[in-house]
Amino acid sequence: MFLYSLTLHRATGVVCASIGSFVGGKSQEIVVARGKSLDLLRPDESGKVVTLHSVEVFGAIRSLVPFRLTGSQKDYLAVGSDSGRLVILEYSKERNCFDKVHQETFGKSGCRRIVPGQFLAVDPKGRALMVAACEKQKLVYVLNRDATARLTISSPLEAHKSYTITYSITGVDCGFDNPIFAAIELDYSEADRDPTGQAAAEAQKHLTFYELDLGLNHVSRKWSEPIDNGANLLVSVPGGGDGPSGVLVCAENFIIYRNQDHPEVRAVIPRRTDLPEERGVLIVSAATHRQKSMFFFLLQTEYGDVFKVTLEHEGDRVSELKIKYFDTFPVTSAMCVLKAGYLFAASEFGNHALYQFRAIGDGDDVESSSANLMETEEGFQPVFFQPRGLRNLALIDQIESLMPVMDMRVMNLFDEETPQIFTLCGRGPRSSVRILRPGLAINEMAVSQLPGAASAVWTVKKNVNDEFDAYMVVSFQNATLVLSIGETVEEVSDSKFLDTTPSLAVALLGEDSLMQVHPNGIRHIREDGRVNEWRTPGKKTIVKVGSNQFQVVIALSGGELIYFDMDMMGQLMEADKNEMPGDVACLAFAPIPEGRRRSRFLAVGSYDNTIRILSLDPDDGMQVLSVQSVSSPPESLLFLEVKASTGGEDGADHPASLFLNAGLQNGVLFRTVVDMVTGQLSDTRSRFLGLRAPKLFSCMVRGRQAMLCLSSRPWLGYIHQGHFLLTPLSYETLEYAASFSSDQCAEGIVAVAKDQLRVFTIERLGETFNETAIPLRYTPRRFVVLPKRKHLAIIESDKGAFTAEEREALRKECMEANGVGENGNTGAMDNGGEDGEERDEPMTDEQFGYPKAESDKWVSCIRILDPKSRETTCLLELQDNEAAFSVCTVNFHDKDNHGMLLAVGTGKGLTFFPKRTVEAGFIHIYKFVDEGRSLELLHKTQVDDVPLALCQFQGRLLAGIGSVLRLYDLGKKKLLRKCENKLFPRTIVSIHTYRDRIYIGDIQESFHYCKYRRDENQLYIFADDTVPRWLTAAHHIDFDTMAGADKFGNIYFARLPQDTSDEIEEDPTGGRIKWEQGKLNGAPNKVEEIVQFHVGDVVSCLQKASLIPGGGDSIIFGTVMGSLGALLAFTSREDVDFFSHLEMHMRQEHPPLCGRDHMAFRSAFFPVKDVIDGDLCEQFPTLPLDMQRKIADELDRTPSEILKKLEDIRNKII
Amino acid sequence: MFNINSQLEHLQAKYAGTGHADQNSFEWAVNINRVSYASYIGRHPMLAYVAIAENESIGRERYNFMQKMLLPCGQPPERDEDLSYLLVIVQHALSSSCYALCLQKQLVSVDVC
């Protein structure tokens, strides 16, 4: 089995983010590492975050730091990754990509203890760079520029210290003196040798300054001082003329200013009043804002509270450190302050946000200051504060993030054309069910009722130079309705359009005249109001029309074509005639070449399954240039011109080309390349779009021509970052459409569907899925679908949180404590915003998180959700510190009176530290009442460990309880044990069944294949895996095969060899005799791992499903970082050969950006086996043209054939 | 003079975690754990995974792992003693289904030469 791996939805979580001016000039961009990919973002004028560029790097990015050489206008980006290399990137505006400027190898690849890459720091003046590992190694590179102003990098200078753990490093701002790097270090050498534990207890963190002597080219430890043992993060303080220099040391509960020859200045981080005493407060992310006259720091705690830290200083003496509560928003992994007054908050989990500063928290009411630090005998006196709504920031944009995907199911619950993907995302109060549909999201702007069922709609401008459309013309069965577009859209009667007949086409002709084509003639309305009418000869009627600005062609019934041309006077003159062999099905003009007045080609589709290209050259007399036969009569034709591009904002280089698109009656979209000189057709591609013949319309998307195809669902064909994408729109079936441009909406589309007129715009181009979110209460763990009612049963659990009642009580208490202010606040919520300065937004759990409880407290709930109405029909909060971990539906075979039941596995009082303990486990059995909308507890059965896996099996319930697999039957008061097997190595986390086989996933020991013998009532293991696998997801593929994912980010398939499988099935004892013998301390048979692939992200769910109607199945997976991917099995050997060769050439010619070897990355834990990396292959179009040609030559193909192959295989998946 | 021992010592000093003939199991376990923690810190999805299980922030988990690098296996054994002690290897096992972080204590009896 060979698989093609493709990322369908890139990771949305953020590892680290940084701000800089990478494009150059005044603008600022945010560079974001999402694990395996690197994105460049920028907020546009309206405050929407736009992705400029996104690239897959095939490696784990761990740190990013931008730097600038003095006097330069542009920032470079240094990347620390798992490649054992330091990579410096420069963004090229022209080609819209990152260029690798330097790549310096310093160690082995992988995330290792002593190989640098975890931390990066740069001298604020851009003269040197330090890259450090978690332990021991630190390397310093000197940055400079050569005579041609290019960046140069020195060989590394070592600043190693053995037996030392590094917590954080930063570059100290010391103007143009020798560069200094600060590091938090902890020496463990004593602790490792002292058996009494005294040395470990006394181990002391140090703040160490490393000075790079630029003259001697040497790094020395300049200064090392003990610091608070809770120190975890360093923030550089502006120096030189701008500030006192030195560093802020963020420690648990404290922020400390330190510098050489300066006493420490310490302040306490304020605590939330409801925080349990044993918990500290840790700073997890930091941002610095500096202006000419001032600077401040924004530091965020692990609970989401952001503090503004300011330093009172005179020269380089700091007299006071002030901490003022700023605002609270979800915990971030990185924050960036933009000069334009925005704050980009890259959330650890869930949606990212862009905030605008409304204030910068001025005012003297600081919560904590070094001046009033109180030291008592028990330590420093804590300072408390009460969080409040956003006061200094205002949310202006959200970037959706699926991180983390906890569970996923692909299903067509809504009976739509394509299945939906139901994902459980997020954590705590920000968790949600997200329903993903392949396709672009649309924004519906207006829907209005029409007097009857409309057949077509057009929009026209009055003058070619107008910006907006003037009329909207709707054609019915026997009438035409004209609407004028202005502030409002209303019917007009003075437009001179004929309204008593249906229309076939309405268009702008020449500069400023309008044309209406109806079955009996052409009506030409001149700008001054004169109307010229051309009537059809005899009894013939017009059936089809094609037109552009100067040319019109009509097809009469019977197959006669009449071609009109506009003369210099603006008169429409009959220019030529042609007789087609039969009735004409559709007509289209090629676009007018630049600098010319007339189009050169006319495409004619006929009912005899052909498309002809006719020449419109006056000398040629509508001669047929080429004929293309197609599988079914064409319904609609459209030429799409791709202008020559040399990159820029929109990606790769490509020459100008012309495509002819045809929508065929069998629902296929047929695309072929038209030679711009000869009119010859070549390179055809086709794709099935839907059950109806696609009608094609031209529209504008981001200022470029795009194609709208209306089949049984609408599709949009457009160019995004150099690729032509054909993506469905998440909208209903439309009849006819036209582009629409008005004051309110520059690039809209107007469409008719039955008797409704709809205006909409298309959003978030380039995304594969659009999502609808339904909020949940706690971190979702798992869900099952209740097939009959199409409801979801979701279990949610959170550790260390209060139950709903306790939270409510706490809130009340807190309100009382705050007294009037808070009450007044809630009272005035409705008319809020008038005196916005004083009024805070209401506190939501999404923004603040749940208050922290002791770590052994759990909250959990079971929810029945109707995804269609988005309504929760039942929500059961579990009591007594129980938390739900597994769920399944079960039909007990001889208890038919109950029908389908819901089994939920829970654990009571689960703790992880210092040892995993649990008070008890339970299996709850619920009955559906109220037509499946609600649950009623039947009974619960106590078991000795947490049941982490439940599954129905032959009318009974299989439960994995710790290392025991047990079969239960339903009793009156509890479940009854029927059979068990205790021979599993650790903990059972997944159970799948098929016929009499049971496939068990162990938390640490991969799959075990079991059999149940009914007559002997025995469960036994007959095969297992040889490789220890820490399973995170499992899915049953076929009788002998399981797909699994381990926590190190690998996906693998385990298969029982065919002969072994047959042997077991034929053996009357079912291999039981042999089982009793065993092999290698395990089962007698071993499964083989037939597929290995490193995804580079923890895969949390796997499913075999098809995302397209009528398509083959692929394995869809979701990951913790919020990405979705697919693995498609190849169907022909030829394709395997082609793609493996393409992959090989891509590896050679286009090594990954961050220096990790592609093959090594995909084989990070196990050698990659039989999987071809589609993400790498899909980078083919981004290569320079000559490189593309070179690879294509090696493969005996043309670049366009390769592109076609890539497109085809993607279309098989989505 | 060429000396294989001094070369080995040099290697051991240069690459922390390289084993040697006289290494006892405690040292071995300490190395394994430090390597594991460094790997968890470096791989963000893994940190996120643990953070979900423990309902803590990713930043806190990173800090916890770094703190644990100091004394990953508890106190070292007494030197020059007959070492038939029990060694505790802390392993982080994360269950797929529930993200319950299971800290399992595996008992390994060791003979040290």
UniProtKB/TrEMBL annotation, chain A:
Family, similarity comment: Belongs to the RSE1 family.
Record keywords: Nucleus
Residues in RSE1/DDB1/CPSF1 second beta-propeller domain copies: 443-762
Positions of the RSE1/DDB1/CPSF1 first beta-propeller domain: 14-398
Biased segments, Acidic residues type: 832-844
GO terms for MF: nucleic acid binding
Cell compartment(s), UniProt: Nucleus
Pfam families found in the cross-reference section: Beta-prop_RSE1_1st, Beta-prop_RSE1_2nd, CPSF_A
Cellular component terms (Gene Ontology): nucleus
Start and end residues of each stretch annotated as Disordered: 818-849
Domain RSE1/DDB1/CPSF1 C-terminal: 860-1180
InterPro entries, per database record: Beta-prop_RSE1/DDB1/CPSF1_1st, Beta-prop_RSE1/DDB1/CPSF1_2nd, RSE1/DDB1/CFT1, RSE1/DDB1/CPSF1_C, WD40/YVTN_repeat-like_dom_sf
Superkingdom of the source species: Eukaryota
Name this protein carries in UniProt: Splicing factor family protein
Automatic annotation (TrEMBL), chain B:
Pfam families according to UniProt: SF3b10 (PF07189)
GO cellular component, one term: precatalytic spliceosome
Gene Ontology terms: biological process: mRNA splicing, via spliceosome
PANTHER family noted in UniProt: SPLICING FACTOR 3B SUBUNIT 5, SPLICING FACTOR SUBUNIT
Protein name per Swiss-Prot or TrEMBL: Splicing factor 3B subunit 5
Organism: Rhynchospora pubera
